[in-house]
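re: that chain from earlier
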Amino acid sequence: AALAGDEAAVAAWLDGGGHVDARDAKDQYTLLMGACFTGHERLVELLLARGAALDLQDRDGFTALMIAAGEGHLGVVRVAYLESLTGGCPLIASKAPGPSHLGHSVP
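^ sequence. v structure.
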């Protein structure tokens, strides 16, 4: 549902007791990472409002913000970045190889 941007389905799942930072078994993606990967800005806002963590990393060490930047979803990057400023979340700390995507995507 997160990859499809289905806000209603994600909200219903969360309301039914689903954990906002639940991960998939294969890639360790969270709902927020899925929404950032596909560029669903309103779903990203919903997940952040529900307490999704921006500093979690997938199996390769990428955070949701890095994923959004790498996919070129600048609207999502802005939403996540602004949330990080108020949430005190580290943005750059990652075990991912190479430079952060942030330096290449944010104008």
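The two ends are 30 Å apart (CA to CA).
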